User: Fold this.
Amino acid sequence: MLGKTSVWLRLFRRKTYPWTILALAACKVIYLCGTQQDKEKIRLMVALAKIDFVKFYAFINDLLW
Assistant:
């Protein structure tokens, strides 16, 4: 039973990974300063690059119509 739960948690983490990084990096960019803020800006841009916006827009379009 623990094995099946572990697989689902791993799949959930893999699917939501770019979104969690995006949210955390956006908050840190606001509150940090100096070189730490620059590092978080880079992390934010990398997270944006990993998100497949074509699938996201298709999903939003299906929800709207």
Notes: The helical segments are 2-31, 35-50, 53-64.
